[in-house]
Design brief:
The chain has 436 residues and is of the alpha/beta class. It contains 16 helices and 15 strands.
């Protein structure tokens, strides 16, 4: 079992004595004719086994998607002179600059004796074997109506204009040979074409993160982008290669949460910990969220300290730890399911823990709606990225229902309890005059 690292990366981790033996083994592979790619590639850059139709590589920027696609095409073309190949980019300029002429493109990865002749005026590559590849642009879907191909490499499909038309015309022309195949490389975006390809029979999927390719990327670059975008929607999409979708009718949208994200927190008047305890003693998730009320009147979400798989003592200690770390003046714990047990378990781990027991008179979605309104009014900020919490928030659907991860939005419910205490719990009802 390996962690997906390349042979070179694994060799660097070995003690000096074993490194020498590994170097000799790699030299032997080279003498036997193994390509550089066989030595340098990671496991998640290598063609998957099986009788697949589409190999979908969904990964963050800098992962090595282009190199994987170019090496796949180069390897096939060098071995089979009959191949007719389609290379489809988001635009003609990108297809040429990235897929063919780029630093990880086909011309760069071609080995001596197998380097194709490039005719840019025709958008044509011709290998010494006789294999031929034509460049196509997703901006011109009709150009793919008619030509036939054995295989195709499609790059950045999530940003294709006319995506469905381009894909359909390509599929209808993939009819040469016994086993037509497509490699599709892209940074994920929640577009209809990508969802359709993922769900299609015959699709195999490879996922990857920017940091998977750390051996070939400057460490300063990795530190900077992770500091800037780690945990944000953009970072999860562009660095972690996650496909993040909006759910119709959700109380929170990803865009709304992104607008609420800040790096600096002002002085805080109060800090509380919201807790949604597990329903039983079987180690279900316990939502634990720290939030504070700023001197500016804004609510700040400070941390998601939620835990899963722990018994009562375990999650109670996690609550006490969060309260101590953030100097909370109150722990707001829902007691509907555990009753007095919740309070007693918390006090057992810390007798001085300032616990306030709250009872839920309404369902989770109904409780969340006033808090979602605070976000819409610009009255809440997230001090950092909280991916698990935010996924649950975006899974709560107006009118009732939950379509997020897990069985229940425990983290989101803890957030609701905390912000309700800070920003809604002390609000007094104003007297009204009724006109008769």
């Amino acid at each position: 079992m390996t962690d997906g690292a390349s042979p070179i990366e694994r060799m660097k981790r070995l003690p000096p004595g074993k490194q020498d033996r590994a170097v000799r083994r790699l030299a032997g592979l080279a003498a036997e004719g193994a390509s550089d790619w066989a030595v340098l590639s990671r496991q998640n850059q290598v063609e998957p086994p099986g009788d697949w139709r589409t190999w979908l590589i969904l990964a963050g920027r800098g992962f090595g998607k282009t190199r994987a696609g170019a090496e796949w095409v180069q390897g096939r073309a060098a071995m089979n002179g009959r191949l007719r190949i389609a290379l489809v980019g988001a635009s003609a300029a990108e297809a040429r600059a990235v897929m063919v002429e780029g630093e990880s493109g086909i011309l760069a990865v071609a080995t001596p004796g197998h380097r194709p002749r490039w005719e840019p005026s025709l958008g044509l590559l011709v290998w010494p074997s006789g294999a031929r590849a034509m460049l196509y642009s997703a901006e011109a879907p009709e150009r793919l109506r008619g030509p036939q191909h054995h295989i195709a490499w499609c790059d950045e499909i999530a940003k294709w204009p006319h995506g469905a038309r381009v894909w359909d015309n390509l599929q209808l022309g993939l009819r040469l040979g016994r086993r037509p195949q497509v490699v599709a490389t892209t940074t994920p975006r929640p577009v209809a074409l990508l969802k359709r390809i993922k769900a299609a029979p015959g699709t195999v999927e490879t996922r990857g993160r920017t940091r998977d390719n750390a051996a070939n990327l400057p460490e300063i670059f990795l530190r900077q982008v992770e500091a800037l975008y780690g945990g944000t929607r953009l970072g999860r999409q562009e660095l972690d290669g996650e496909l993040i979708e909006e759910i119709e009718g959700a109380l929170w949208t990803r865009d709304l949460i992104e607008q609420c994200r800040v790096r600096d927190v002002p002085g805080l008047r109060r800090v509380v910990i919201g807790v949604d305890p597990p329903a039983g003693t079987q180690g279900d998730a316990c939502g634990i969220v720290a939030a504070g009320l700023g001197a500016d009147g804004i609510g700040y979400v400070l941390a998601d300290a939620s835990v899963a798989g722990l018994g009562p003592e375990g999650w109670a200690r996690a609550v006490a730890g969060a309260a101590a770390a953030h100097k909370a003046d109150k722990v707001i714990a829902e007691v509907n399911n555990g009753g007095a047990m919740v309070t007693s378990v918390l006090r057992a781990v810390d007798p001085d823990l300032p616990v306030k027991a709250v009872h839920a008179a309404h369902g989770k979605v109904a409780r969340a709606e006033p808090v979602a309104a605070l976000y819409a009014a610009g009255k809440v900020r997230h001090a950092g990225g909280f991916s698990g919490l935010e996924d649950e928030m975006c899974g709560l659907i107006a009118g009732g229902g939950y379509a997020g991860p897990g069985r229940s939005p425990d983290r989101a419910d803890a957030l609701v309890w905390a912000l309700t205490e800070l920003m809604l719990g002390g609000r007094k009802r104003e007297p009204r005059v009724r006109v008769v």
